[in-house]
Structure formats: structure tokens, C-alpha cells
């Protein structure tokens, strides 16, 4: 059998996972921007296939420090100083928010969030309790 | 500067001990809980009722989190910011050691504060704010709701937030 037959593309895709990159719009100092299943098409796409995400990367090219809160929970936040890259994997979340901790408004597109469900086990798709409710 | 009842969406969230949300237990708009500024509705017949069979089981160390999403921006006062939380959450407890089950009503004093009032901070329209959390003590399980002995009053639930606005 061919190593990657066209009939197995869907199965293969399920084992590779899911990834999205968001370019965060400008956030005023102290303000919070939330992404969840009600507001973000990317989160909707993630949850539809994989139930939850397990990978989060913050690329902060802006001068202002930001904080990313998985599931909006302050106690689980990742702190990303200006000009830094912060990664967390083997985690679990279904929504997140970005908070500007600096004293000035961030520039649109300078803070990027890369998140997804990375490499679920080959035998575990769909992972993390994803359910077909439709 | 005066207190005002905030209108918006209320949510009860089941979180595990690691602060990972497991499920949304309830989502209702403030208009369903009636009440006016400083006067939360006290007539159980008028309040919505929580159906106990809809609740997941919350285990020890897990949390019941109350979240709120305002309908419109609410700017807090620049001095003496204040929240007045008025909760009435019916729950049924199970003591795992004794096996005894009993009904209880959680009020605002039972919850720990997550979001504190902050001078001049805006509660932004359409954004969730985690207001309060209740952590289950050891050797206990809990579900939301009471048995419906009298459907007119049992299991009545209410959440209200008054905020000192600018």
C-alpha cells in the first residue's frame, strides 16, 4: 500500500492535530481580550474536532508585557514580557484571554498567539472528550 | 457615584482542582433573577428553579465558579469601588464518610472572592469576569439544586451584582 493513500488523509489529519495563529488586535493598557467558543471561529474549529487544546505559544513582539490566561483563569496565566516568546505544552484549555499589563496600548498584530492540539496519540482520536452533538 | 445593578449573563462553571473548566452548569440572564439595585428578589416563587438532574457531580477540591458577562460597559467609581454580591445557590451535599445527604443553600459569604472591586476599572461588555468561587471541602460531593417537594419555591436560584459606578 502507498505510504499516504488519499483514502487515509482524514485519519492522518486526526493524528497530526490542529494549529491556529492569531494576530491580536490593539489592546489598551490594563484591558483584556477574550477568545472563547462563543466569539472565536478558531476556537470553534478546535473544539469541533479535538474538544480542547493542549498547546499555547505567545509571541510578543510588542514593547508592552502581556499575560495570556488559559480559560480566563488568572492563576494559570503565562507572562510574556515585551519581545519574548513563551510556550506551554501538555496543558489543557478551551478558551483564553490576553491581558495588556503594560502602560501603553499594544500595536495590532505585534502580539501573536499560536495554539492548538498537537500530536494527539495515534489511537486517541478524537481526543479529550470531543463529542458529536450535532 | 452610586451602586447600580448590572445586567448581563450569569454562568455557573464546574472547575476541577486545577482550575480547568469541566462544564458550564447554568447560564441565565440577570433579567430572570428580577430584583433591583440594593433589593435582590426574595420571593422564591418568582425566581427561576434549578433542576437537580441537570447538575454534574462536583467532587472534593473541585470548584463552583460564578462568572458574569455584562451587557454594557460598566466603569467603576474612582474612589470607594464596591461590589455587592447577592447569591442564593441551592445545592445538595453528600458526606462521603457518613453517607449522609443534606440540602444547603450557598450565599455570597460561602464563596471566596476572585474579582475584587478596582477603582476606575471597566467591566467590559461581552467579556466574562470570574466573580466568586466555592471550593468543596474534603470528603464531600455536591450537586446543584434541591429536591422539588414544592415546585413553586424549592431550588430557587438567584445571582445579583451591584457595583459602585463612576
Index terms:
heterodimer, A: 134 residues, mainly beta, 4-stranded antiparallel sheet, 2 helices, 8 strands, 38% strand, B: 166 residues, 5-stranded antiparallel sheet, 0% helix
Textual characterization of the structure:
The complex is a heterodimer of chains A (134) and B (166). Chain A is mostly beta strands. The radius of gyration of chain A is 16 Å and the shape is elongated. Chain A starts with 8 loop residues before the first helix and ends in a 16-residue tail after the last strand. In chain A, 13% of the residues lie in helices and 38% in strands. In chain A, the strands form 2 sheets. A 4-stranded antiparallel sheet of chain A has the order 1-8-3-6. A 4-stranded antiparallel sheet of chain A has the order 2-7-4-5, with no helix packed on it. With 166 residues, chain B is mainly beta. Helix content of chain B is 0%, strand content 45%. In chain B, strands 1, 6, 7, 11 and 12 form a 5-stranded antiparallel sheet that branches. In chain B, a hairpin with a 5-residue loop joins strand 2 and strand 3 (21-29). Chain B starts with a strand and ends with a strand. Classes of the chains: A mainly beta (134), B mainly beta (166). At the A-B interface, loops of A face loops of B.
